[in-house]
Amino acid sequence: MPCSLCSADSDLTAFAVVGGPDGAATNLCDTCLTQIDGTPEPTHWRCLSSAMWSEDAATQVLAARMLMRLSDESWARDLADQLYLDDDTRFWVDNVAQLVEHKDSNGAVLAQGDTVVLVKDLPVKGAGFIAKRGTAVRGISLVADNAAHIEGRVEGQRIVILTEFVKKR
After folding, report:
1. Apex 168 CA angle, 164 and 169, nearest 5
2. Which of these, 3, 11, 15, 101, is most buried using a 10 Å CB contact count?
């Protein structure tokens, strides 16, 4: 049986597709598994042009999510525009935003309203100041579709901060 996304004939691992029906899973090769959770290599994911039409809803959901992650690539935007999903499957694709975990530089899970401390001086683009190391940022907001970003107020300015530069208080 080949990989559900890239059709590679190699060892497969069952991958749970979260946000939808309990137990929904699909079989993926090591390359796809590594890139789903890590940094996707755009050339590998051109295989989504066929995977997105799979009759398996879990495979369609993964294909749609990867196309969203690759939206900087024109071919991925074109494929996403062509993709038709029924309402339940579309909800499953979009349900991933609720499952994104924001973690600080030490791996602690961040939540809406937490207080964090900057672990590095950060130049704030467009605002003309540097947010100093040790500055407390109270009442953070989580960026729903990007686990690497949070928002908070520093010196009265609402800014986006990379989670790798904060520590939960």
Report:
1. 145
2. 3
